[in-house]
Write a structure and sequence with these properties.
There is one protein chain. By secondary structure, the protein is an alpha/beta fold. The protein is built from 14 helices and 26 strands. The strands form eight sheets. The protein has a seven-stranded mixed β-sheet, sandwiched between helices. α5 links the parallel β8 and β9. The radius of gyration is 25 Å and the shape is globular. About 50% of the residues are buried. The mean pLDDT is about 95.
């Protein structure tokens, strides 16, 4: 691991100007806590307000810019992302601990979002011609931007998720203030640098760094029309509570999951094991769509448990810059404590531990936030916290079920509803799970991870509030308007309403 790189000097970007660097907080490498990736300024309330003002000032000209010319900015951005893919992936691996192969895939996912946005600049439908009951009238619906969008993003996808949000928002004519996670500010800053290099006008994308207090200041600012958020339920709920008192505020929130893979007795066995492993342990279990529950039909459970544990034992967790490793560390020491706490809780709740994961240090003499997989088997029990609450780490329960109805009941027995997968060769079974499970994204004979940008990304219950991200975000960052034109020489009203005016012109 290269620890000789000079720390990045963090800056804010407001109205096209980069602030002088300040060393308010560090960003460290979770694989080597002694390595400082960079030091960053925490935006003051005045700076956060200035960023919103800058976005507000830039909005009129950006909104009036041709949609196609707005899209051309994204074409230039795509070329820059291609140019810097490897550098961005390496920076991401150092800052969030995700394996460099996953980081590179994330950069490509971000590129796909940029390409999608560029393509829809010319081909996207942003209005419709609608019939009127009056022959002389033409009626239309059109989408209009809201104004200023606050983009608040998580550390685990620090490049792709911001582009899911910034891409549709900017294409549709909004301007933005972007606050990346305080755990991955360097990747966020790199992204804004690319926006600037691509020629986005000053003030269209503004950058503020900092913790939750900066995010709250941004959310409380009445100059923000839309808040786009991905993160925990508690923070998402707080954002919605603050925003409820603002009459022209819309919030699109994606807030985690307690996802399940359902393995039926007719599943292709090797595929089922692979799907479970990838769902549970890719990104060290730190995806909002990661599966911390694998529901296995009871006739298959013993065989599946053996194969799953044997495979989990072979996974290599280590230096995220080494592509031979399956996954890297968790994000920070607080995450280590949280996951270990849930491991203990599962034991206290009576689970049978099949693989007792815990802290490991794969690199001698280096302190990192590494955890090995924790796998346990348990019957479904009412009120069992470890199989209902989001853990966000390499922690997974194997839960047997008897019938498909049992599997649906157990899968839905959580306050979340983000992602799910079913492994089956039966098309009728697949359809049953499709219709009866609570989720926003479902997969068949696949892991419950692996979103694509042209599909909506969001969930139900605690996982989301009905405004999915990625391609589905267009619904949230625009509002529909009606526009009706009379081509006649007199007024005719719908519903047979008379137009006669007593005492009017003869």
């Amino acid at each position: 691991m290269n620890s000789t790189l000079a720390p990045i000097q963090g800056r804010l970007a407001i109205a096209g100007q980069w602030s002088p660097p300040r060393n308010d907080f560090p960003s460290t490498n979770p694989a080597n806590l002694a390595e400082v990736v960079g030091t960053f300024p925490k935006a003051t309330p005045a700076e956060t307000a200035a960023a919103v003002d800058a976005a507000r000032a830039a909005y009129p000209n950006w909104r009036r810019t041709s949609r196609i010319l707005r899209a051309e900015c994204f074409d230039r951005l795509a070329q820059l992302v291609k140019r810097d893919t490897d550098a961005i992936a390496t920076l991401m691996a150092r800052e969030c601990g995700k394996n460099v192969t996953e980081c590179r895939a994330e950069v490509v996912e971000g590129l796909h979002m940029v390409q999608y946005v560029f393509g829809t600049g010319r081909t996207g439908v942003y209005g419709e011609v609608v019939a009127s009951e009056i022959a002389e009238k033409d009626a239309y619906t059109r989408r209009k931007p809201w104004g200023v969008v606050a983009v608040i993003t998580p550390w685990n996808f620090p490049f792709a998720v911001p582009l899911w949000m910034l891409g549709p928002s900017l294409l549709e004519g909004n301007t933005a203030v972007f606050k990346p996670s305080e755990d991955t500010p360097a990747v966020g800053q790199k992204l804004v640098e690319l926006f600037a290099e691509a020629g986005f006008p000053a003030g269209t994308v503004n950058l503020v760094h900092g913790d939750g207090s900066v995010g709250e200041a941004l959310v409380r600012n009445p100059g923000v029309n839309v808040v786009l958020f991905t993160g925990s339920y508690d923070v998402g709920r707080r954002i919605q509570e603050i925003s409820a008192g603002m009459h022209d505020r819309l919030v699109a929130a994606e807030m985690g999951g307690k996802n399940a893979v359902i393995v039926c007795d007719d599943a292709r066995f090797d595929l089922a094991v692979t799907a479970g492993i990838l769902s549970a342990f890719k990104t060290t279990g730190q995806r909002c769509v990661s599966a911390s529950r694998i529901l296995v039909q009871d006739s298959l459970m013993d065989r599946y448990a053996v194969a799953f544990v044997d495979t989990a034992k072979r996974l290599r967790f280590g230096d995220p810059l080494d592509p031979r490793h399956f996954a890297g560390p968790v994000i920070h020491e607080e995450s280590v404590k949280k996951v270990l706490g849930y491991n203990r809780l599962a034991k206290e709740e009576g689970a049978t531990v099949l693989l007792d994961g815990g802290e490991v240090q794969p690199v001698a003499g280096t302190k990192g936030c590494y955890l090995s997989p924790f796998v346990y088997r348990t019957e479904w029990k009412p009120g069992m916290r470890s199989i209902r609450e989001e853990v966000f780490g390499p922690h997974v329960a194997l839960i047997p079920f008897r019938t498909d109805e049992d599997a649906v009941r157990v899968a839905n027995d959580t306050e979340y509803g983000l992602s799910m997968a079913v492994i089956t060769e039966g098309y009728r079974r697949m359809r049953y799970f499709r219709d009866e499970c609570d989720y926003g994204m479902g997969y068949v004979n696949l892991p419950c991870i692996g979103a694509e940008v042209h599909l909506p990304f969001g969930g139900v219950k605690r996982s989301g509030n009905g405004h999915p991200s990625a391609a589905g975000l267009v619904e949230a960052v625009t509002h529909k308007t009606a526009w009706t034109v009379n081509h006649g020489t007199e007024i005719k009203m719908a519903q047979g309403l008379t137009t006669a005016i007593e005492g009017g012109p003869a």
